[in-house]
Amino acid sequence: MDVDRLVAEAREVMERAYAPYSEFHVGAALLASDGSVHAACNVENASYGLTVCAERAAVAKAVAAGVREYSVVAIVTDGDKPVAPCGACRQVLAEFGRGLRVVSEAGGIRREWTLDELLPEPFGGLPGWTGGIQD
User: Fold this and answer.
1) What domains sit in the chain, N to C, each tagged with a CATH number?
2) 112-123 average pLDDT score
3) Which residues contact residue 113 at a Cβ distance below 8 angstroms, ignoring those fewer than 6 apart?
4) Which residue numbers are catalytic?
């Protein structure tokens, strides 16, 4: 799958975001190593700490489908410029592989990073952890 198609999937799901408080709509589409795509949007809550980011929702959707290896995450917002995932999302994404490619698009602008660039020293609780599932 090409990145343009992945971004289009993120854009489509962004339209269904529930963001009555921030009015900042986010869609994320995660490309798994098996070629499947897992897309989700942000879901806000009146108790802000309970808000679920689109990236973490996409990871949860993929894990629920039995998929735990990803190569690219596309993030689309209705803002003026691309945004990187928040710190919590970076850490969750790092759990499943630090080499992830992160593509973000907003306002007709696209940016790309690797997860290693965005989170150079993620927390890893298991001995020998380097990102990704440990056997």
Assistant:
1) 3-118 (3.40.140.10)
2) 92
3) 84, 101, 102
4) 55
